[in-house]
């Protein structure tokens, strides 16, 4: 089975700014203002910081936000990992001819919302479990559908170790071909595992995770 992140518990706190890592735009000489360069395209520190702040804002507005914030001290690294992985996944899916439409995303989301008890419940569960900001729900659903579609296209059964290996190998080849250069302040990208440093593997089935909480 694919590894899941630990389900997070939550509480309100005024420590929003204190808990958000200070991400300055200076960078190193090779990465001025960039958190990473993927396939020749920059992920800027400002873009990363904006996404981190979105999550922190949502966490701070949760009834149990303080605990949520304290449990996600590595949020900037986890967020950058997701931003890089998304680009690699999109390239792999495109090369395999896998597409996901708005209708596909909406259909999946509607089903999940119905099973969980509504749109707000879905947002709350994903914020708690995966640190997904409310305005990133559609993008996260799209990622999941692309990953599922890619696995199906290449004949990788995600429930088996062999299927997981085949899927990782496919993404790893794309990652190497694209060239992922991360600002040393944020660690080193691992092409073989398709993750940033010691962050957790992004092989999260949000569908399964959400529905288990229903």
UniProtKB/TrEMBL annotation:
Extent of the signal sequence: 1-25
Pfam families referenced in this protein's UniProt entry, alphabetically: SurA_N_2
Entry keyword Signal: yes
Classification via SUPFAM superfamilies: Triger factor/SurA peptide-binding domain-like (SSF109998)
Keywords: Signal
Source organism superkingdom: Bacteria
Record-linked PROSITE patterns: PROKAR_LIPOPROTEIN
The keyword Signal appears for this protein: yes
Listed name of the protein: SurA N-terminal domain-containing protein
Originating organism: Streptomyces ramulosus
Lineage: Bacteria, Bacillati, Actinomycetota, Actinomycetes, Kitasatosporales
